[in-house]
């Protein structure tokens, strides 16, 4: 398999959701290109999960249209409300969670909560964008949940995908985009 070829099962869905035409013209950012994707991956000692990897290389590196509410961020950027310059982020260290965690409701983990929270925000994920009010969507790039999308807020973190019980959407970047494009609420499971 050639890692520098777009995953063909998803491009039409991704282009439509982010308002990108077949010529690669977008209302958002331009494509990153494979050379820049390779440089980003090398600098951070990771390989971005597909189809997000091909999306930023060949379709758009960020977009004002599509999910989340304030648009998809370019791969190397953080939301304006991030709070620091992101210097402590280490994408190659594993994302620490595999199940939802509402830290405000978990007194049993109070002792190590600060250390785990630092890892949740700074290790193993790129920030896809924000729905505002410190509700940031992350794509896990390292660790057991590599390829999964997570919503991380000021009170907790939860994975996106029907197997986690919060939504009817498929897991991963393409499932997250399809769910949004179908105009469904993020967490629509009964």
TrEMBL record:
**What's the superkingdom here?**
Bacteria
What SUPFAM superfamilies does the record point to?
SMI1/KNR4-like (SSF160631)
Q: What is this protein called?
A: SMI1/KNR4 family protein
Organism of derivation: Streptomyces laculatispora
């Amino acid at each position: 398999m050639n890692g520098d070829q777009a995953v063909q099962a998803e491009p039409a869905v991704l282009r439509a959701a982010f308002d990108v035409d077949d010529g690669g013209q977008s209302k958002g950012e331009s494509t990153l290109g494979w050379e820049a994707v390779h440089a980003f991956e090398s600098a951070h000692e990771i390989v971005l999960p597909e189809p997000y990897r091909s999306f930023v290389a060949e379709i758009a590196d960020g977009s004002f249209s599509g999910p989340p509410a304030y648009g998809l961020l370019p791969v190397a950027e953080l939301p304006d409300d991030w709070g620091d310059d992101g210097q402590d982020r280490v994408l190659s260290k594993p994302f620490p969670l595999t199940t939802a965690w509402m830290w405000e409701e978990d007194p049993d983990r109070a002792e190590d909560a600060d250390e785990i929270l630092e890892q949740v925000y700074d290790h193993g994920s790129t920030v896809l964008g924000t729905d505002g009010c410190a509700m940031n969507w992350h794509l896990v790039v390292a660790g057991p949940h590599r390829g999964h999308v997570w919503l991380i807020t000021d009170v907790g973190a939860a994975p996106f995908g029907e197997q986690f019980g919060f939504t009817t959407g498929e897991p991963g970047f393409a499932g997250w985009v399809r769910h949004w494009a179908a105009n469904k609420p993020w967490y629509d499971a009964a």
